[in-house]
Design brief:
alpha+beta; 1 helix
Length: 69
């Protein structure tokens, strides 16, 4: 599936600092979610299907991706 990102409205967390070193997200058609690096807005973006986004955000909440000591 190809999703046109031309009109995407990208945003970053309200907890982000003033620096331009953040991850940006865009709500896309058919429930898809785009993710990109704010330092490279014309670079590649990841596109998550709705169920993939749900699994990813659940993993973040559950600290699945945390680096262990």
């Amino acid at each position: 599936m190809t999703i046109d990102l031309t009109g995407a409205q990208w945003f970053k967390s309200s907890r982000s600092g003033p620096a331009n070193e953040c991850v940006e997200v865009a709500w896309l058609e058919a429930g898809h979610v785009g993710v990109r690096d704010s330092k490279n807005p014309t670079g590649p973006a990841l596109i998550f299907a709705p169920d993939e986004w749900d699994a990813f955000t659940a993993g973040v909440r559950d600290a699945e991706f945390s680096r262990g000591a």
